[in-house]
Design a protein that fits this description.
The complex is a heterodimer of chains A (404) and B (219). Chain A is an alpha+beta fold and 404 residues long. Chain A has helices at residues 2-11, 13-48, 61-70, 82-89, 142-147, 193-200, 215-218, 233-243, 263-306, 308-316, 321-359, 372-398; strands spanning 53-57, 79-80, 94-106, 109-114, 124-127, 137-140, 155-156, 172-178, 188-192, 222-223, 225-230, 247-249, 255-261. Chain A contains 12 helices and 13 strands. The longest helix of chain A is centred in the last third of the chain and has 44 residues, at 263-306. Chain B is of the alpha/beta class and 219 residues long. Chain B has a domain at 2-92 and 153-206: Rossmann fold (3-Layer(aba) Sandwich), CATH 3.40.50.300. Chain B contains 7 helices and 10 strands. The radius of gyration of chain B is 17 Å and the shape is globular. Classes of the chains: A alpha+beta (404), B alpha/beta (219). Chains A and B meet through helix 1 and helix 10 of A and helix 2 of B.
Chain lengths: 404, 219
């Protein structure tokens, strides 16, 4: 039976390939859209959940969140480092306080000044993390090292601002290269915050003048944001209400208006706004899917109708309708099974190709991630390829006569 | 033995044919001769179980097949009847062997197919696609497919209809020879082939022809 079914399929090779392609494309797109939408959603929310509060200059909340977590937008501005010191003093409410400054560029790649705590959870592929107690050291992202042929020990020279090509006189020594993470971290140079200050001569006092003193007591520069991991959600809310709108005045008399955000809320808002777009994409996918359901059903049914001559021939020579039914179910089942398999593989290949693009949002797509609804979609497509044939041949088998 | 008793076949277009009683004895070859529309092919199809008589009965070796369900008649046909169709009824895109081995779907033993092809002189064509064969070769393939299951009854509907006389005569000679000991009923309109059969039945005399609801003959 299987041998005959395969021979019969080989005869209608082009027709069967077209049916299979239709199934592969429709099911592949549907599964891919669903998988990516879910992974991006989950990934962004997960990233945002790592920090409970971000304090930065007043302005766009979204820009502050996106810049400090995903390095996408330009910084809103700066706030005095004294804010970091104040927050660090409040040890009862916070687990960690991480300063974040984004300035300069290396061949177009952003340079972030921070502490090693910012790279918690990241793996160093070569070398080690920079030393927080010194300056002029850098850990570079995987892509930067790869495309600029950098190795540990190399000295890099950065540009004066995020976009400038005018280089600083001082060089920074690469002490480590991060493992590839398919995230925005692959495209960033990380260095000590004080390195950026020294380069820009920010802050009135330099490390070498203050050896042996407590670090936080002597840094009077600025940062773009402060990332805070609060001890509990209540403390996070308290910090937000305390720092949001607060005006800080430095010894020089400069005033800074702060804003404090809960990044999870911001990301949820962004995702909610993006939801309309997401629903449009889902509706479009649904329409594509619906059209393909119709195409698959019609092609499969036409395939069976075109086979009416050979079915009647088989009936005339005495082959029972039960066997004919089984024969066509096997044929369409093979096409359906192979096609859904290829559709699944196609979605994974596309996922792999999309990874670099989605990485710019700080989300790493997991190729192995499979959602239950994907299985349901694929199963549905498989059944669609078999059911029309089954119904049609079943109806034919109910007719008793052959040549009446 | 095949007994035809008082059968009538009414068609969907409301024409009908009535048959006189007939008996076909086992081991003999019969030629059904008659004008187009007199009911020769209809009779073969009713014997084969492809058509059901509207009334009357067909009894084959004691089994009243006309009372059986379609499934039972299909089973009876695949086991006992070899049917050679006028237009061959072969799958054109498949090979000779595929067209014969299709019977394996119903667990028919086709192991003697190559020998039969050899007997009919087309063994070398066994892997050729049907569409690449001549009319005579197709007819021989149809004969092999009908005989490969070693049926007791062989029905042939205009087996020479698509062939010129010389090839048609050769096919009939081979068919009669290969059907020795079996019941062979062949429909043909060519009287010149009558000499190869044990009996010739003039179907013009055995039916009232195809008639409409008012009893008028339908041409």
């Amino acid at each position: 039976m299987l041998r005959f079914a395969l021979k019969n399929m080989a005869i209608k090779f082009v027709q069967n390939i077209l049916i299979a392609l239709s199934i592969v494309i429709s099911a592949g797109i549907a599964v891919l859209a669903y998988n990516v939408a879910n992974q991006v959603n989950d990934g962004i929310t997960k990233n945002a959940g790592y920090y409970s509060v971000i304090v930065g200059p007043s302005g766009s909340k979204t820009q502050l969140a996106m810049n400090s977590m995903y390095f996408t937008e330009e910084p809103l501005g700066t706030i005095p480092y004294s804010v970091v010191i104040d927050l660090m003093k409040d040890g009862t409410k916070v687990n960690s306080v991480i300063p974040f400054a984004m300035a300069d560029n290396y061949n177009g790649y952003g340079v972030v000044g921070t502490t090693t705590a910012f790279l918690n959870g990241k793996t160093v592929d070569k070398g080690a993390l920079f030393d927080d107690s010194t300056t002029m050291q850098a850990v570079v992202g995987y892509n930067i090292a790869k495309y600029n042929h950098l190795n540990v020990g190399d000295v890099i020279r950065t540009g004066h601002s995020v976009n400038s090509s005018e280089l600083h006189a001082q060089g920074i020594t690469v002490v480590g290269i991060l493992e590839e993470s398919h995230s925005a971290y692959d495209n960033i140079v990380f260095t000590q915050l004080r390195t950026l200050w020294e380069m820009h001569e920010h802050g009135g006092q330099h490390e070498e003048e203050h050896v042996g003193e407590e670090e936080h007591e002597h840094m009077q520069g600025t940062v773009c944001a402060v990332l805070i991991n609060a001890k509990n959600p209540v403390y996070a809310m308290q910090l937000v209400s305390e720092y949001d709108g607060k005006i800080v005045t430095t010894e020089d008399g400069d005033s800074y208006t702060l804003q404090a955000i809960e990044p999870m809320e911001i990301v949820r808002d962004v995702l909610d706004e993006a939801d309309d777009t997401k629903y449009i994409v889902f509706v479009l996918c649904g329409v594509i899917m619906l059209m393909n359901i119709m195409i698959i059903s019609i092609i499969t049914l036409l395939n069976t109708y075109h086979s009416a001559k050979e079915i009647s021939l088989m009936r005339l020579i005495g082959i029972s309708m039960k066997k004919i039914n089984l024969l066509y179910i096997i044929q369409n089942g093979i096409i359906g099974f192979v096609s859904t398999g290829f559709a699944f593989a196609l979605s994974k290949v596309c996922l792999l190709l999309m990874n670099d693009y989605v990485a710019s949002m700080g989300v790493v797509l997991n190729i192995a991630a499979v959602y239950p609804l994907e299985i349901v979609i694929l199963l549905g497509v498989f059944l669609l390829s078999v059911i029309p044939t089954f119904i049609w041949t079943f109806c034919m088998s109910k007719k008793d006569g052959i040549g009446e | 033995m095949i007994e035809i008793k008082n059968i009538m076949k009414q068609f969907q277009n409301e024409t009908a044919i009535e048959y006189k009683d007939m008996t076909f004895e086992t081991g003999k070859s019969y030629m059904l001769l008659g004008a187009s529309g007199c009911g020769k092919s209809t009779l073969l199809n009713m014997i084969a179980g492809i058509l059901t008589p509207t009334k009357g009965s067909i009894v084959i070796d004691g089994v009243e097949t006309s009372k059986q369900s379609q499934r039972e008649r299909d089973k009876f046909r695949i086991q006992n009847i070899g049917y050679i169709f006028q237009d061959f009824k072969l799958l054109n895109d498949m090979t000779v062997m595929d067209n014969i081995n299709i019977l394996r779907l119903e667990n028919v033993d086709t192991s003697n197919a190559v020998q039969l092809l050899k007997n009919l002189g087309i063994e070398e064509k066994k892997n050729s696609k049907i569409k690449h064969l001549s009319g005579g070769q197709k007819q021989r393939v149809a004969i092999v497919r009908a005989l490969v299951k070693k049926p007791d009854i062989i029905l042939a509907d205009e087996p020479t209809g698509n062939l010129n006389f010389a090839i048609g005569e050769q096919v009939i000679k081979e068919l009669v020879e290969i059907s020795q000991g079996k019941t062979l009923i062949a429909v043909t309109h060519d009287e010149r082939l009558a000499k190869y059969f044990d009996e010739v039945i003039d179907m013009n005399e055995m039916t009232d022809g195809r008639r409409d609801l008012y009893g008028e003959e339908v041409k």
